[in-house]
Amino acid sequence: MESSLSESVQQLVRPGKCVDLYYPDPQTAEKQCFRTIQNTRYVQAFANLTGGSSVFTIPPNNGIQDIVLVMEMPVGANGSSVFDGRGLALPRGWGYGLIKQVSYRYGGSSQYFLSGQQLLQNALRKTPNGSARDDLFNLGGSAAAGGAAAQGDFATAQRAYVWLSLPHTTPTSDGKLPPLPTDLLTQQVQITVELNPIASIFSVAAGAAGSAASALSFGEFQVQAVMLENQGDALARRVDMTSHALSYPIEFAQQEVVIPLVAAATQNITLTGFRSGECKNIQVWITDDADTSGVIKNPFKWYVPEDIQMTYAGEVFARFDKSSSQLWNLVNGRQSAAVNEVLVADAGGGAASITTTFLGKWAELPFAQTYNSDTAHSMYVAGRPITNGIVNLTFSMPTGLTPAATQKLHVSYNYNAVLTFSQGTCDYVL
Known about the structure:
Oligomer: single chain
CATH superfamily: Adenovirus Type 2 Hexon, domain 4
CATH topology: Adenovirus Type 2 Hexon, domain 4
Strand content: 35-45%
Number of helices: 7
Distance between the termini: 42 Å
Helix content: 10-25%
Shape: globular
CATH architecture: Distorted Sandwich
Radius of gyration: 24 Å
């Protein structure tokens, strides 16, 4: 469409295409090609409510998006053999704390694993803003405590809603990925969740009259599915998928590496175990086993390293003096690399307390250029192939944390990847 007005200097010198912002125009308007409907009707109960593994199988039929775990603790009662909450407490996000690891397999692809800590960190960093991040954490299980002589919060059922951070999922409508097209598969999608013993997540105050629950009262998987209204629109009915392939871009998170730290103010770490492919960034945070080894459990008391310097092949890629990683991660993302937590403590007299606030932090060490798009799959930004498999990391321990041999560095590598669907199966290309 020709403009009736003469162009300004800015119109002449600025790069870009002419777009009509006054009238509806094909360049500024998009529409769905194939009509779909969405539902969350498919659920499956946990095979084991006392811990251990439960397997969720999704038959190859239609598109799948987010997968959520719903877990519920029994209601406490004085003297109950099932659960007595007097003097006990649960930390915020206890549903994630119950997860030892999650594994997933798409059709005939390889099986990959994520730890409970990594699952939560990956979920928090993908939320669109700080409010959504804190809400997602709190929905993973609100902090709860029982009094010395009464059930307190445990007088009502405590529930956790855990969003599984898998390669095809996004915890927001912003940049939501298209559904994983299981209609192109001949084998089922399999998600396995391994839980820690249920009692392991409870804090127990000294002299507490109560006893922890040994089993959940409820546990299930739930999946959000996207279905084509007309099955004739399915790709396999329009294209010969024995000779063609569909590329589905994702971000692949490698199973976290946990590295014991020495009792020193400065740490020198060699990161190894990189897969062949483009590493976009490395996520790091510190935990202390002392926060979970005793009777008081604070599994998500995360500390961020200070004075970070990450080098590859002698070249510095990330240098964050003091705690400046927090600002750099903010200006290169959508939110701070931190989450609001509450810590469990022994309040004395046989009661527990959940009143102490704490800001859990992590750091993102990037290789790829900063770019974020609200439209899924619209932009590929190159990462860094780690050809010799070694990255060196130097940092100082956080201010206020006394170095100890019980502390560990958690490291998560994230890569550019594509799932390719063809001949009834799919696999990863990194």
